[in-house]
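Record format v2
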Amino acid sequence: MNAPSPEVPRNVVRVDLLAIAELVQPGTRVLDVGCGDGELLTLLEATRGVDGRGIEISQKGVNECVARGLSVIQGDADTDLVDYPDDAFDFVILSQTLQATRRPRHVVEQMLRIGQKAIVSFPNFGHWRIRGLISLTGRMPVTGNLPYSWYDTPNIHFCTIRDFVVLCDEVHAHIEKGIALNGNGQRIGLNAPWWFWNLFGQQAVFLLSR
Amino acid sequence: MATHSDMAAAPALPALRENDRLNQADHPSSPFVRFGPDEALLLDSGHRLDHLQIAYQTYGTLNADKSNAILVCHALTGDQHVASTHPVTGKPGWWSDMVGSGKPIDTDRYFVICVNVLGGCMGTTGPASTDPQTGEAYALNLPVITVRDMVRAQAKLLDRLGIETLFSVAGGSMGGMQVLQWAATYPDRVFSALPIAAAARHSSQNIAFHEVGRQAVMADPEWRGGRYLREGTSPKKGLAVARMAAHITYLSDDALHRKFGRNLQDRDKPTFGFDADFQIESYLRHQGMTFVDRFDANSYLYLTRAMDYFDLAADFDGRLASAFKGTRTRFCVVSFTSDWLFPTVENKAVVRALNAAAASVSFVEIETDRGHDAFLLDEPELYGTIRGFLSSAAHARGIG
């Protein structure tokens, strides 16, 4: 997948990756779906001692991963997750990729079949800036962080935090933990209500179980 | 005018070169070892080979703890001369861009071994070898061999060389089949495995193409029921036609079109005959003719048969994943987008089985229009993948 993530500053370790890493128990088996150049897998192997695997759609990304010594398969989250047996992993991670899948619901269901737990991070389309842009300009938002025009964006299934919570309900996923990060990468207080998260969270990270 | 007369009219094969080739079967110009009846090789067919010669070639230096050995497995018509001048044709080795000092399979770091396969014709026991019991070439008296027999023979050589584990086993096509067989048969002896443009079984379509090739060889009157060496004939026309047909399967429609299109060969207009009007015809005829210079017709029958019989899952109740159960080998599977002989879907079946076995596996599909042959050609993405995979495995293995 390796969809360029619209909301995340580059050239630093992405804050959502650090948030994900904290959710992963050390020494577990991890599958990173849409692992890009292997940044998260490298982080997880270094800091959590996981046995990591990846799936990545771009040849360039796979080659970079293989050169880094990671076990990565060239493949498509939409079609290739069915090849994995049940309970093959402790954690299946989808980092900033959900919005680029053709069948997000199918992908989340497959993740929870393959893994005991699933971790999903995505940009929140309910963020106030985006709401503001749409309501003021009447057009799909194009900004420095969202550089694509609607007709050539890889991000075909944007959702809001509220939308994702509804999806979790529909696929009977249990939300063990939810984290919202604001524009500075800081966490929004756990006691904040959903509407606040949905308005001020620029991205979200969810830990799910069956 | 006819194809066959045209071939006969081609530049005559120098007699010396043919003798060179025949000589290689018993007296290879590379190192070899011999095994006698006390170390007989038991074959899948139930037969045993009481006399076995294995010819091989090495590059680089084996380190003190013997942990840096890479076995390169050659394809159907390859041989042990991976990166050195071919003793018959004088051409560079078939993977000389891949194997060597500073190359992706770096002989400054690794000790590379390549073994002429069992059934081959470059010094390892095959149908052109002299049967010590009769003093004549085995011809069709050699038992039919399998990919697993080839691998068992290679293991015997490694035992003789004192190499317990291989840092890696790498190969394309039939070489990739051997890689998979190695990983399944000797999982503890294989640290990493690189099957390229391969499959866990030979498809019906591939068996069909091989059958066409074999029938072409056997239809040549000079084949003489396989006894052509004894009778002093040579089924070159049949073998050349087999090679021509096979060569088409190694390429792709796009690559043929890009390279030859409908271009005419040294003429402005069609001759309204059956001469090689088109460049593609001329090219294929050339491929056929040069092949017979360096290959034995009966070897071609035996090796294509071995590939046809290859079905790794069949030994495990049809479950390919069981072939790799509990494996600790690190795998890197490579396929090419335009390869229709060993297409991506076949390679992915291997990846799927490895996933199901919870193996460490990487998979790269390389974008190219050059078809199956891409694994032998200058493909920077292939070089990058192999270099990266081996480097990381070397790091894990503690090889400097």
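The first strand of chain B starts at residue 32 and ends at 35.
Residues 380-397 of chain B form the longest helix (18 residues).
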